[in-house]
Amino acid sequence: MATTVLNVGGMSCNHCKMAVEKALKTLDGVQNANVDLDTKKVSIEYNPAGIDEAGLKKVIADAGYDV
Question: Dihedral (C-alpha) 66, 11, 63, 67: value to the nearest 10 degrees?
Fold first, then answer.
């Protein structure tokens, strides 16, 4: 398992938090995703054999947020 922390812009409420976490958790290889609204960061635990950081960033951007 690998862990990465990404800065995510455009999140302002609990709905945003849930949307980003849900989008990430739909990916194969993502074990956990936790958004901290105060710091505008998401911590992602994932299997690098299943997905890479570019794929993580793409799903966040596709959900409508800036990475």
Answer: 20
